[in-house]
């Protein structure tokens, strides 16, 4: 019983962080246009906020396993996730709109300055940074489509080629690996997988794994003479 009370107390701190982030987004939404500094701030806050879910998921899973009847805890999880994903979606929408406005302003400035007059190195560097920014913030996010916690998309299976997100590294240095095992929880839903990489086998949660759209053709077809 003492452990259950401790779990519930810790969970309350996660709920408080949801409220804090919601209040922050309300302030940001009141701004007519975000500056580059505000964009950097909201991106950093969102990155920190997204790491909250993995910690919450571990705590909530332990709590669900500790009680005799977890139905009430399932409802608690659903309410938390509903608010969490809504806040993440709102933050990403604000970031996307801010990038759109800033990119438009930057493009207008470059057009006025005549891009042909820029040094070749600066143009190459600009295009490279633009590519990696869109790749990491749009394409990778698209690969990592989220589903409700109690539903399985069926995408992450043994043998799937994946990219492992690491917020401390640029996308070019993210590890590439292949899933060797998926680990289902007591409810039968898999949320963690073992991945073989060049650094060995590591275990990561699904929310940090991005499956690559690689299709493997059947060797028995198309190979005849």
Task: Walk me through what this model shows.
By secondary structure, this protein is α+β, with helices and mostly antiparallel strands. The protein has two domains: 2-117; 161-211, no CATH class. The chain is 56% helix and 14% strand. It is built from four helices and five strands, in the order H-H-H-H-E-E-E-E-E. Strands 4-3-2-1-5 form a five-stranded antiparallel sheet, with helices on one face. A hairpin with a 5-residue loop joins strand 2 (175-184) and strand 3 (190-197). Helix 1 (2-29) runs antiparallel to helix 2, helix 1 packs parallel to helix 3 (71-113) and helix 2 (36-66) packs antiparallel against helix 3 (71-113). The termini are far apart. 11% of the residues are buried.
Number of strands: 5
Tally of separate helices:
4
Shape: flat
Biggest sheet strand line-up: 4-3-2-1-5
Termini, distance in Å?
A: 70 Å
Low-confidence stretches: 147-152, 218-225
How many separate structural domains? 2
* Series of H and E elements: HHHHEEEEE
Portion of residues in beta strands equals 5-15%
Reported for the largest beta sheet, the result is:
5 strands, antiparallel
Structural class: alpha+beta
Please, what is the average pLDDT? 77
Rg computed from alpha carbons, rounded to a whole number of angstroms: 22 Å
Helix content percent band = 55-70%
Domain DUF5641: 119-212
Pfam families: DUF5641
């Amino acid at each position: 019983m003492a452990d259950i009370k401790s779990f519930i107390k810790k969970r309350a701190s996660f709920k408080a962080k949801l409220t804090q982030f919601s209040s922050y987004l309300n302030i940001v939404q009141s701004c007519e246009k975000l500056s580059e500094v505000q964009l950097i701030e909201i991106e950093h806050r969102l990155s920190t906020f997204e790491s909250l879910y993995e910690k919450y998921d571990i705590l909530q899973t332990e709590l669900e396993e500790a009680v005799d009847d977890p139905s009430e805890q399932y409802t608690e999880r659903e309410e938390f996730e509903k608010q969490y994903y809504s806040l993440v979606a709102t933050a990403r929408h604000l970031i996307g709109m801010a990038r759109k406005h800033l990119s438009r302003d930057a493009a207008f400035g470059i057009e006025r300055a005549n891009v042909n007059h820029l040094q070749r190195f600066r143009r190459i560097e600009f295009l490279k940074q633009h590519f990696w920014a869109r790749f990491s913030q749009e394409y990778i996010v698209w690969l990592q489509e989220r589903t409700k916690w109690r539903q399985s998309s069926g995408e992450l299976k043994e043998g799937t080629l994946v990219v492992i997100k690491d917020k401390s590294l640029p996308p070019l240095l993210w590890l590439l690996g292949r899933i060797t095992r998926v680990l289902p929880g007591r409810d039968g839903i898999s949320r963690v997988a073992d991945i073989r990489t060049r650094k060995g086998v590591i275990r990561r949660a699904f929310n940090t794994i991005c499956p690559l759209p690689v299709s493997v053709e059947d060797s028995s077809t198309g190979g005849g003479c």
